[in-house]
Every structure is written in C-alpha cells, then in structure tokens.
Amino acid sequence: MKKQASANAPQKRVRSVKLKSIARCAAKGRYKTAISTAKQLLEESPEDGESGAWLAFCLLESGKTRRAVEQFTDSLAKTNTPRPIHPQFLRSLIQQRSKAAIAVHAMLREQFPAFAANYVSTSGDDPISKAYRSEFNTAAPNARTNPNLLIFNHLPFTGGTSIQASLSLAFHKNRFFNIKRRSGLPMIHRLNALSDEEFAALKYIHLHHPYPINNRGIAFARITVLRDPVSYFLSGYFKRRNLGKKIIGSRDMVEGDGGFDSAIDIAEKYRMRNGLARQLAVLHPRFAPAYARHYAVRRSLKHIVLKKEPKNPHLQYCEFEEDLFYPKATAKLSDPAVYELAKEVLESDFCDPCVIKHLEAGFLASMARLGHHVSPRIPHRGASHQPPREAIPDEVKARLRNLNQIDQRLYDETTAEFERKHNALIEALRGPL
After folding, report:
1. 170 CB contacts (<8 Å, ≥6 apart)?
2. What are the tens digits of pLDDT across the range 42-71?
3. How far apart are CA 171 and CA 127, in angstroms?
4. Is the model's pLDDT at 6 over the cut of 70?
5. Residue 262 belongs to what H/E stretch?
6. How are beta strands 225-226 and 354-355 bridged, if at all?
7. Per-residue pLDDT at 417
8. What angle, 0 to 180 degrees and rounded to 10, lies between the N-to-C axes of helices 260-269 and 229-243?
9. Closest CA to 180 of 348, 280, 305
C-alpha cells in the first residue's frame, strides 16, 4: 500500500501543478490554453470532477454556454464536495444574466444545500424566491437588458461591506474595479487611464470614494444605501475608534476632547453635516469640472501608486474624511440646494435606492431589476461596534437630527417609497411571525 501511495504521489503533484496553471490562465483570459490543459487532465483521469469543472468554466468564458453547462453537469456528478470553481461557474452565469444560471443553481442546491442557500433563484418555491421572481417579472424589460455596468456608490457606514461581499459572488474580479475611500485618487486616475475597450469590459465598479464617474456613454445602473442620520453618525463615531487605521479617520479623533458634543462640533466646523446628501449631490454633472480641476495631475500613474506620501498634496492618500473633496465642493450650497441636487441624482441615476433598514430587500430588488435570474443573499458583515441606542443621551440624538435635517428628509422619503414598492419582498424576508 505504501509503495502504491508513493507511486501516485508524482501524479498528484503533476495534477496539482496543472490545475494551478489552468487557474492562472483563466485569470489572465487565456482560455484556449486553459481548455487544452483541462482536456489533458481529463484524458488521464476521466473521473476527475475538478478538472471537468474548470473545463466547463473556461468554455463558458469563451462564449460556449451550452457546451459549458453540459460539461459542468457531467463534472458535478463526479464531485463529492464543493470546489472553489463551482461558485465561479455560477458567478459567471449570473454576471452574463444567463437563464442557464437557474438550472446550475438547482443542481448545486440539490447536491450542496448549504452552499446553494447563499443564493435565491427565480425558479424557487420558497416565499423569498417567489417574491424575488415577482420583482424580476415586474421590472421594466429595458432596465433588465440595457445596463452593462453596475456602479455601487458605497456611502460609509450604511451596510456597504455586506453589499460588496454579496456583489463579489456575482461579478468576477477581472470585471470589477475597486475605488477605495482613502486611496481613491490613484484608483480614479487608473480608471480614467483605461482604454475605451478596457472600460467597456467592466461589469461592476465599487465607488467608495465620492466622485462623479464618466461612464463614457455606456449604459449603467447605480445602487446605493441610505441610513438614518443619527445611526449613521454613531456608527462612524464608534467604528473609527474600534478599527483605528483600518478605515479612514475623522478630525474628531485628533481634535477636541473625544466626546459626542466635541465630535458634532468638529463635524459642523468641517462642513460634514448632511454628509450623505452632500456625497450624493457631488455625483451631479455640475460638479464634474470642479473635480477634474481638483484631481488634475501631471505626474505619472506609477509615481502616484508607489509613493504613499508624495509632495503634491493632491496626490496624498486621504487620512481624514473631512479632507475628501466633497465637503469643500458643496461648502457654498444652502441646505435646500444640497437637497435638490441629491434628490435629482437619486431619482435620475439610481435604480430604487434602498435603506439599511431593508438592506437585503434593497439588494435583491436591484439584482432583479438588473435582470439576474439568480442572486446572492446578503451575508451580513461589518458590525458598527456602537452601543445600544438607548445608551445615547436624548439631547445628542436631538442635536444630530437638527443638524442633519436634509439627510433625515432623504432617508424618510426613500424609506417610505421603498416600502411602498417592495412590501411583498420585505415581508417574505421578514418571515413568519
């Protein structure tokens, strides 16, 4: 037995090396080479379900959907445990908005119930699937077929980490562009440096840095999440203090006495009141010239990315939220003007903006509107670390509401409209009482 195991060891090493080679080729888009290697492995071991799954994935990415699904079905019958390639295959079908995703999800649900529970399908019989199917069927056909690009405007402390985790189950990394909050400027330059062909290949942009993206004439859909302004402020206050440099800081961490009142004073000093509305307002086309001037850079992209503290202040990685451009860009606007701009952006650019109160319902509604037959579920990540609401003094909450009346108005209006449109989905997710 030991001799047999020793004899099989070189074959296992060769197989492992070839599987890694397939994965690398697939990541670089070299599908022809990956397909050839996968076929070699299958000739050597026809019962190798993992190699068959990789062959199916590469066929799918090459545009051969029917052959890919047939190959995936065959490989799944030879697999006892889910492999990393299985969610990649389903993700690719979801990204392509293919109906074949329904059949593949059903197969995975039957063989690996725990894995498939992370998704919902238009063919399911459970209450959530039925509500999702209703959302899918009632969405306007042009909204399901036209957008080729999804832009997630990730407002901080609104459940965006959960949304981003879910979207990673629906979009491949090679079709995804991530603009982080602190290092947004270098990534914006990298995005603008993409050729039209490279930009057109993108399927999803995660925009955590408030910036009016030029979509270059490509049909797109935007999603975002709003939050009650009191909860929003408190979430940021406690999260920054618990996570430190892992997230972008705020001036109240280095100025004042560190208390609630001091933090609110500093937020007002640096024009941070109604912060959610201001971040939405700067997405309006009228701010594009101001952003272009502010982010004008003569140095090379290589210099921007590699040097963390360049001499040019416009190139620095942002240390504090107050140093982002949106407070300065909206400083001279009155509260009514901020509201009107934010409202116009929400109504014209976003498909059903949602609220953190109904986070999963909002995500599923957006995926249905985009025409995805199968959608990931929300995995709930990113705890805010804040204490119970009753532990916060009433005078602090009253002051926050008074200073953020525009945010409060937008949140209340968005919540009422979302509940009116998507009550059935909300009730299905709430489950039986």
Report:
1. 91, 94, 95, 204, 367, 372, 375, 376
2. 998 888 899 999 999 999 999 999 999 999
3. 26
4. no
5. helix 260-269
6. parallel
7. 94
8. 110
9. 305
